Fold this protein.
Amino acid sequence: MTHSTTTAPDGAPRPGDASGAGAAADGRRPRRFPGPRGPGGPRRPLTASSRENRAGLAFVTPTVVVVTVVVVLPILWTVLLAFQNARLVDIQGMGLLGDWTLENFQAVFGSPGFWTSLWTTLLYTVGSTAGSIALGLVAALALRKPFRGRGLVRGSMLLPYVAPVVAVAFVWEIALSPQFGIVNEWGAKLLGWDDPVAFLSTRSYEVSLLGLDFEVPLALLTVIAFETWRYFPFAFLFLLARLQAVPDSLEEAAKVDGAAPTQRFRHVLLPQLMPVVALLCVLRFIMEFNKFDDVYLLTGGGSGTDVVAVRVYEFLTARFDVGAAAAQALVLAVILMALLGLYFAFFGRKVQEESS
Amino acid sequence: MSTQVPFSRARFEERLFGVLRWVVIVFLALITLVPFYYMVLLSVKPIDALLLDPGRLWVSTKEFTLSTYEEVLRPTAEGGQGFLDMLYNSALASVGAVVLTLLAAIPGSYAVSRLRFFGGRHLSALFLAVYLFPATLLAVPLFVMFAKIGLQGSIVGLAIVYIAQTVPVSIYMLRNYFATIPFSIEEAAALDGCSRLQTIRKVVLPLAAPSLMATGLYIFMIAWNEFLFALLFLAATPENWTVSLGLQQLANGIEVSKTVLMAGSVVLTVPVVLLFLAAERLLTEGLTSGADKS
């Protein structure tokens, strides 16, 4: 970048007749000068586009190096580990390429809890994603028009998202505790609950509604409620921003035509919001699918909340079976990619519109 | 039907949603504020008061105590939980992550948003693809790598690991912001004789300051709140524990009263919330407005 040719007019075949300032300006407008890519001699000044190419590569190199070292290499290594018989104790001495084996995958697919765990992960992911976006949408609609104290309410609504997961998980744990939790205490006082409900450790809870008895996966639902609560502010922020960008005239026109609020929402606002909703679905789905902390802190993966991410952790720390953990994580990633592939095949255009 | 008073669906709904809106607002304010109020409330109560009457949502002046905070913050050598040291560790890891991530993300995101170069268009997709892999997956190899270069159990190592979590989203945020800075500003700088690097340092970065702050804040939040990597990397070295890890270990350890646990939660929550509230105001002051008007 510091060599002398930078002051030469770019895009012009011969240097010398343009002023330095004009040349520099040309250099900043490379798009208009595609520049000939002929077999230039060694002395020939670089074309604008190839100089931009060089600058781009130079700028992006540090970022790529960092990402490669802390992300790409570890991922590749995990892929290798998944095909090896690796334990944490001997992994240090092992070379990169040990004996290949498919045992890990056999262990993963053959282990008793795998399929139920995958099903749990899916339920958890879909439930949390839908819940947080739905609540975020309701919140965005309610807070759309200004009112006294809106800033305050909006600020407070970001709290669950900003606060550390460890802290809020403990608050929920204590509030839901059957012994000294406020929820059970009030439930008994105000709603007449007979027995305290152990929200976080009940696999299935019998509920009778309209004379019908059915089982509810209570712990899983509680964890989903926690995720909904924690991440609706995220959806709310995106949706509110989009809502406020919808021109008033659209809604005014519908109002004049006598459209009721639900009709205006369905036919005017919702089409405007759909791209954001689609983008949020993808983002939340990916995050929830790989989620570890929240479930681990609330239930430790017990009582029917054994999502795959927690199982990976268990393989890693309880059994020190690095190979099996890697294989399991890899299976999870592949399933996620397949699901995303399906999603983009159907809704790809909408998401692209929004994120570009 | 036609003989009745005109009762349009529109008017009915208008009224219904007028009321519902306030119901929703109150509901949202309650579900977001009450858990935090509950957290602070329990942290200043003696444990007996909680066990005696779990449903009470206030604390009497007679009961009010700060001994829970004392226990949490006192150094471990004096029989406390040593959260002051952990606060320092958390701050170190988070600030380190912010600096390292921004250093790594700024040039890359500038290149991706501004320059056309070989492979540039695929790079940003690649960066985001990182999130497809569960964090647990990254943890194993990073753990082994760090053990080899002697960084395991150290805060520096943790800060480096956080880069993996924060670089992709930082690039995404910064890229979008760089794209909004008009080309003409850079061209003007070039006319004044700035090289590309000078343009970035003197023009683009100052203009992007609000966005840099927002991104930095977001990174800080992620790093401060992070739990899994701290658990995996630091569990064996208590002197380096972050507050998140310390709190979880506290809950797991020998019988610790819930009120002390809540005091720890407040200690963990307050810094990040304060920072967020303080910066939110700063962030709203746009900087680039009018910069391109001529």
Notes: The two ends of chain A are 30 Å apart (CA to CA). Residues 4-66 of chain A form one domain. Chain A touches chain B through 101 residues (CB under 8 Å). Chain A has two domains: 4-66, 113-163+219-355.
